[in-house]
Amino acid sequence: MAIIASTAIVSPGQAPGASAGESQPDAIQAYLAPLVANQTLAGAVTLVANRDRILYLKATGFRDIEAKAPMATNDMFWIASTSKPMTATAMMMLVDEGKVNLDDPVEKYLPEFKGQMVRAKRTDGKDAAAEQGPPELVPANHPIRVREILSHTSGLAFKSKAQPGALDLLPLKDAVKSFAGEPLLFQPGTDYSYSNEGLNTAARIIEVVTGIPTSSSCSSGCLTRWA
Q1: Which among 11, 40, 51, 137 could bridge 117 via Cys, Cβ 3.0 to 4.6 Å?
Q2: pLDDT in tens, 17-69
Q3: Among the three residues 47, 70, 93, which one is the final residue of a domain in this structure?
Q4: Distance between CA atoms of 16 and 6, rounded to whole angstroms?
Q5: Are 158 and 195 in contact (CB under 8 A)?
């Protein structure tokens, strides 16, 4: 968990609002400590920064409650879908640079998406994605586009059958290939369905275009522009 608080100029670890040489209660820690005590939070790392430097950095609570292992400021967190805005930002930077067009077909960058099929829409009102046995398939009305994978309107599912119960265990390249191998839930651009597959596919396009792994491209691109 990361909390962005005020940007008052303080020294790392000094309570925001305290002037140099002045000792004041740490309001951030005073707020977090009861949440750790009542187990609302296991622990937290709080970082306050401006564009020039880190103003406040402190850990509280535990990274492992059972082992009573204290949280450290450099502990790693699984940020889950918080990465989606970062991926979208990195993609839009490529759009600004003229390296990607929002109306480009995904298959331009990832050929495995060519000829993708769509589950036929049922006329009895039942969910086509939940039906048993091989689904009836029809051709896509157009190849899915970059703007559709960013806006959850591509028809890509939440996750593929190749992915285990826990997400993000497959290498990104392999996961995206599994997305391309399954039919779309609906015709591209005609509906909305929250899709991890869509943003992961966008992340793979970023890798292909920049030649940089997504974990690096999002930090180098979003924070310091491309290397």
Answers
A1: 137
A2: 444 555 678 999 999 999 999 999 999 999 999 989 999 999 999 999 999 99
A3: 70
A4: 7
A5: yes
* Length reported for the chain: 227
Rounded to whole angstroms, the Cα distance separating 108 from 219 reads 25
Distance CA 49, CA 87 (A): 22
pLDDT, tens digit, for every residue of 67-95? 999 999 999 888 888 889 989 999 999 99
205/202 Cα distance (integer angstroms):
5
Under 8 Å between Cβ of 140 and 118: yes
Separation of first and last alpha carbons in the chain: 28
The total number of structural domains in the chain stands at: 2
Listed residues 44, 70, 96: the one ending a domain: 70
